[in-house]
Specification:
Number of strands: 3
Distance between the termini: 39 Å
CATH superfamily of the largest domain: Ribonuclease III domain
Oligomer: single chain
Radius of gyration: 21 Å
Number of domains: 2
Length: 249
């Protein structure tokens, strides 16, 4: 299986143990204590992906403020997007799980291994090697715009604020109250988010934070897509569509 993964990412490891560790779930290590899992490689891989992604959005969205770059980077390399990469590379079949752990099409284990592989390549071959793997096999999937009905938001409140500041130079406000009914142990809160006396969205949650997050997500789903100029893409990304970074907003 490891050789197959090497073929798919077009990288041959000098230290085979790194790839083996990147494909080992913690549950497997719990069952076989002498093995190594992907936790440490996931740590370094997350940092490397963050750096590559930051460089990409900084270059592609050259005229955008830092707040929008932050949203674009989070959208580009969030867990759901990285899981799509892992599914494309068929990593689920190669990951070693403990007997007690089930798997799914986009389990957290698949996402973690997808990140850990970049960490393993970085440790084995350095930043340029990791970037080549990312550019060739991660970026084309990450830059492919997901179907809107599956769109999720890592931080809805932050993204909604960035959108409103960008277009209207203001801030959304939330009205959040505890709902009638329910017990003291399991209360329900309702929240509405509005701007300029217009209610943008509403949501419910087990606490105020969850309710406001749900309201912000509801508002984002209802907002019309914002049209912005398509920027020039660096040469290494000419085979992917840059509008996927900006047309989601």
């Amino acid at each position: 299986m490891e050789a197959t993964v090497e073929e798919r990412i077009q990288y041959t490891f000098g230290r085979a143990g790194l790839l083996r560790a990147a494909l080992t779930h913690p549950s497997y290590k719990n069952q076989y204590p002498d093995s190594r899992d992907y936790q440490r490689l996931k740590f370094i891989g997350s940092a490397v992906i963050g750096m590559i992604s930051a460089n990409l959005v900084y270059t592609v969205l050259a005229d955008k403020p830092a707040g929008e770059l932050t949203v674009a980077r989070a959208r580009l390399a969030n867990n759901a997007a990285l899981c799509r990469v892992g599914h494309t590379l068929k990593l689920g079949r190669a990951i070693r799980f403990g007997d007690s752990v089930g798997t799914s099409k986009c389990s957290s284990g698949t996402t973690d291994a997808t990140v850990a592989i970049i960490g393993a390549v970085f440790v084995d071959g350095g930043y340029e090697a990791a970037k080549r793997v990312f550019d060739a096999h991660y970026a084309p999937v990450l830059l492919k715009k997901p179907k809107r009905r599956h769109l999720t938001y890592d931080n809805p409140k932050s993204e909604l604020q960035v959108r409103i500041q960008k277009n209207h130079k203001g801030h959304p406000t939330y009205t959040t109250e505890r709902q009638k009914g329910g017990s003291d142990h399991a209360p329900t809160f309702g929240s509405k988010v509005q701007f300029a006396d217009v209610i943008l969205g509403a949501g419910k949650g087990k606490n105020k934070r969850e309710a406001e997050t749900a309201a912000a997500a509801d508002a984002l789903k209802k907002m019309d897509r914002i049209t912005v100029p398509v920027p020039t893409v660096p040469a290494e990304y000419v085979d992917v569509n840059p509008t996927s970074l900006i047309s989601w907003w």
